[in-house]
Amino acid sequence: MEREAPQRGTLDVAEEELLEDEELWRDDDAGNHTGWWCVKTDPFPCPANGCTFVAEFMTAAHLVLVWQDRDDPNLLWHANRAKQVGRNPRVVSYESGYGPSASYYAWEAAGRPVHGIANERPVSS
Description:
The chain has two helices and six strands; from the N terminus they run ββββαββα.
């Protein structure tokens, strides 16, 4: 019997507990990320039930995710993923006028909090 090689896939979540009075995560170490890099996309709605926020950048908890290096492998991976789902990604230099930001690595270190889901589950990349 041959074993299948592991492949990337999707995560199906059987139960999600939505939060009613949720506070969005903030990057406590957020400094001035001007000049860092982010992924601009076609507008897309926040997936949290009842949320009216519309993002134009790759975000986490409504914060623009930023990377210090334009060729950061995680930035490129997320840009490619946005391309795969038809969001027309472009890597651009972050400006404060885009909205509040968070370092991608600070977001990862915080456990990858996601807006609207109480039991955050780390996703391996």
